[in-house]
Design brief:
The chain has 238 residues and is of the alpha+beta class. It has one domain: Creatine Amidinohydrolase (Alpha-Beta Complex). 27% of the residues lie in helices and 27% in strands. The longest helix is centred in the middle third of the chain and has 20 residues. The two termini are 14 Å apart. It binds magnesium ion (2 copies). One magnesium ion (MG) binds next to strand 5.
Length: 238
């Protein structure tokens, strides 16, 4: 799964290097698509449930599942969440990152920082014996202490031969509850954190998920393996 994760992480890194003011989300999707295909993998999201692109690209108040578009231009000051999956040799990698384009507001910066830090804090807790609820509660606490809200409708998940497997990995919950992690499990931890209300809406396209109040949302995700002694992040680019 490290092979799939390496390509996934590399595609995200390529997206970060390419993203710029004036670019369309369609062109950013092409960068990701070309990276994945040129490394011998398949984009996990392309055609998944009918999804029409290789990456989900979600700008500002779009939480997740944004559809890349030739008419949507990325602008200076935007925050852009890019979610990528790559499939190779029978396994998937799944990772996401919110990029700041040019100068973003201090509020946007803080939201992104809290979201990423909560992911890294949860990853640092992963080892055999810990419960999913321990991770969920840690992510929730970290973000709520900073005044942010945790999206409820969408959660992390197991990942392996299928993109989405059991168990669910919510970003909210109670410590000491839920399934215990065992060595060999692989999960995608993915906090989706909003500046305002936790409530979201799905647009008529059936995919795009936006915050109900129009405020910003950030999303960071890694695929991680539970090892006998702790954790390995599989979707790092190097
Ligand atoms: Mg993802
Ligand atoms: Mg995922």
């Amino acid at each position: 799964m490290r092979k799939a994760g390496l390509i996934t992480g590399g595609a995200l890194k390529a997206a970060g290097a390419a993203i710029h003011d004036g670019m369309t989300t369609y062109d950013l999707d092409r960068v990701i698509h070309d990276y994945i295909v040129s490394h011998g993998a398949k984009p996990s999201f392309l055609g998944y449930g009918g999804f029409p692109a290789s990456a989900c690209i979600s700008v500002n108040d779009t939480v997740i599942h944004g559809i890349p578009s030739k008419t949507e231009h990325i602008k200076n000051g935007d925050i852009v969440s890019v979610d990528v999956g790559a499939y190779i040799d029978g396994y998937h990698g799944d990772s996401a990152r919110t990029f700041a384009v040019g100068e973003v507001s201090p509020e946007a910066e803080s939201l992104m920082k809290s979201t990423e830090e909560s992911l890294m804090e949860a990853i640092a807790m992963v080892r055999p014996g810990i419960r999913i609820g321990d991770l969920s509660a840690a992510i929730q606490k970290y973000n709520e202490e900073r005044g942010y809200s945790v999206v409820r409708q969408y959660v992390g998940h197991g990942v392996g031969r299928n993109l989405h497997e059991d168990p669910e990995v919510p970003n909210f919950g109670r410590a000491g509850h839920g399934p215990r992690l065992v060595a060999g499990m692989v999960i995608a931890i993915e906090p989706m954190i909003n500046a305002g209300t936790e409530k979201v809406k799905v647009l008529p396209d059936g995919w795009t998920v936006k915050t109900l109040d129009g405020r910003l949302s950030a999303h960071f995700e890694h695929t991680v393996a539970v090892t006998p002694t702790g954790v390995q992040i599989l979707t790092l680019a190097d």
